[in-house]
Amino acid sequence: IRCPVKECDEEILHGKYGQHLSSHKEMKDRELYSHINKGGRPRQHLLSLTRRAQKHRLRELKRQVKAFAEKEEGGDIKAVCMTLFLLALRAKNEHRQADELEAIMQGRGSGLHPAVCLAIRVNTFLSCSQYHKMYRTVKAVTGRQIFQPLHALRTAEKALLPGYHPFEWKPPLKNVTTNTEVGIIDGLSGLPLSIDDYPVDTIAKRFRYDAALVSALKDMEEEILEGMKAKNLDDYLSGPFTVVVKESCDGMGDVSEKHGSGPAVPEKAVRFSFTVMNIAIACGNESKRIFEEVKPNSELCCKPLCLMLA
Fold first, then answer.
1. Which of 4-13, 168-177, 279-288 has the largest mean confidence?
2. What Gene3D superfamilies does the entry give (predicted)?
3. pLDDT tens string 75-118
């Protein structure tokens, strides 16, 4: 109810109108404006009613909404009511609640996707235990699982590992096995000659080069497709593509202090890796570039081939 007192014009809830009116001491005839209870119980707030009573009180409005939905929205009453609710929330600046509701309506849920959580963990250089601590804290404080647990991240990570994506070489490559399901192999396999020159003991884990390259390109699928779309090259989805790769090898410093428990390791750790520098597509006589690595020296884009303690 809008207060009829001059220069007040305040909107008051129905039940609190009498109480508000008593604050206007200057009014002599304030009874004129007060609500007259005709006996019976005072009207309760809509949300405190039973479902049946809510239906009863809202039946006229429900009929109007139904008529509107059938006329304008193909009979989708839920969409009309949800949109009304979202507008009411946003009008009161309750944007967080509105965003969460919108996410649920679109089937996204309010939590982050495991792949997004993995990207956050990698980009912020969090160890597994640091991430798990953050995950537990956020879950305890908010009461909601916004970040995904570590096991979900590990499952998402498998898609990035060499040997996860099946592929075949056309034409088949000489001396290269056709088996694509390759995980980690012995780091020294195929290197007997060079090992003799350096009498060092090495522990190594190595990925197969072709499997690692396919995995890297599969990981970049979205960027490749976006690059093709930007240059209107959708007709060339089957290629041929030219992929330029930079190989690198870097020492990972003294790892003796990074071990924690166990004996000190005075030796060095070495990483062989590659970075996809750019990808081009041959259209007719010219070559068009559809991807270029902006930070080619960043740790975040180098794909490990071999990790070795020497």
1. 279-288
2. 6.10.140.510, Classic Zinc Finger (3.30.160.60)
3. 888 888 988 999 999 898 888 888 878 877 776 666 788 989 99
Report the run of H or E that residue 83 belongs to, with start and end: helix 77-91
Phi, psi of 6 (to 5 degrees): -60, 140
SS3 readout for 241-290: EEEEEEEEEEEEEECHHHCCCCCCCCCEEEEEEEEEEEEEEEECCEEEEE
CA-angle at 206, arms to 276 and 190, nearest 5°:
110
SS3 298: coil
Closest listed residue to residue 279, CA positions, set 271, 287, 289: 289
The pLDDT, as a whole number, for residue 14 is 77
Who has greater pLDDT, 2 or 247?
Answer: 247
And the tokens for 296? 């080619």
Find where tokens 């997004």 sit.
116
**pTM of structure:** 0.54
The helix (run of H) or strand (run of E) holding residue 303 is strand 303-309
What contacts 24+ positions apart, CB below 8 Å, involve 33-39? 33/4, 33/5, 35/1
Please choose, from the candidates 247, 239, 237, 173, the residue with its C-alpha nearest in 3D space to the C-alpha of residue 210: 173
Domain assignments of the chain as residue spans, ordered by start: 114-159, 184-309
What is the rounded CA–CA span in Å between residue 220 and residue 210? Answer: 16
Separation in Å, CA 166 to CA 180, 215, 237, 306 = 6, 9, 18, 21
Token pair for 264: 């000190």
Q: Is the dihedral of CA 229, 247, 209, 205 positive or negative?
A: negative
Q: Residue 19's pLDDT is what?
A: 76
